[in-house]
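Re-run with default settings, no changes from the original entry. Doing this only to confirm the output is reproducible before filing.
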Amino acid sequence: MALNRFGSTLAEVEREHILETLTCCDGNRTRAAKFLDISLRCLRMKLHQFDQAGPRVAAGSNPATCKLSFEFVGERARVGS
C-alpha cells in the first residue's frame, strides 16, 4: 500500500512506513524493530497507538508485495534492491 507522501502528515507517513516494514518482515516485530532501528518496546508502543487511532492492515498479510529487500549485518539491517 503506497501512500502519497506529499500532503500527508508526518504521523501518517510514519504509520505507513512502520506497517509496511512489519508486513515485509512477515509480522515479526523484533525483526521489524531492528530494520527500523528502534527498540522493540518503541515499536510495540507505536503499534498500540495505531490501534487506538483506527483500523490497520494485518501484518504479514501479503509479503509478496513487499518492495524492500534487506539483510542483517550484525545488529543493523542493510537495505538492498
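The domain at 10-80 is CATH 1.10.10 (Arc Repressor Mutant, subunit A). The chain is about 45% helix and 10% strand.
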